[in-house]
Amino acid sequence: MLLEVIATCVQDAITAEHSGADRLELITAFTEGGLTPGIGMVQEVVRAVQIPVHVMVRPHSRSFIYDAWDIATMVAEIKAIRSTGAAGIVLGALTEDGMIDERALEQMLAASGSLQVTFHRAFDELKDQMSGLEVLKQYAPVTRILTSGGKPKACDAVPRIHQLVEAAQDSHIRILAGSGLSRAMIRDFVEQTGVSEVHFGTSVRYGQSALAPIHPEELRRVAAALQQLRESAK
Length: 234
Fold this sequence. Notes:
Layout: E1 2-7, H1 10-18, E2 23-26, H2 39-48, E3 53-56, H3 68-82, E4 88-91, H4 102-110, E5 116-119, H5 129-136, E6 142-147, H6 158-168, E7 174-178, H7 186-193, E8 197-200, H8 216-233
Parallel strand pairs: 1-2, 1-8, 2-3, 3-4, 4-5, 5-6, 6-7, 7-8
InterPro entries: CutC-like, CutC-like_dom_sf
Keywords: Cytoplasm
Family: Belongs to the CutC family.
């Protein structure tokens, strides 16, 4: 059971690591769903922590449909991120008809080198998530999918997330569940969906605000709850 936590600055990253996070998703513009942070921020976060840092690659928040200029920007960002020692990147691209943009994806993956790749919640805007999963299975660098099962909150999509977990079992892809998860629900959610990785954002921040710092005590409580699940699974 792995706990990924959103970080937006160096202090977030340090607090998250010290409070039990197993991995970071580093972003800026939290209130816009996350955009690519500056390369200086990426460098400093990678230097400051020992846990893996996965960096958002998203040039704007208008949509997940990208033109040639957007794709060129994302490829340039990926190359820069590779130079920092980050462990992974978080990306996604869709066509106008609600399918995975394989042309854009292939250009970005060609620049990713050995970075792990998470396909982010653009996945939740697909017309057919199960077909989308089958497409992503064809791409070895894509190691996980961040999804709320097509709903605003993952807890409202338990059957779909369970279905995705089952469908991904014969592949290299893991389902990373996120959006709206909280400590109170996490045990039931994990047991019902079968996910092995969860993603936390605002619920481990003061006042559950995207603009507030990480609340270390709340994050420790979440990490402890997940540790209990690990131990009970042995």
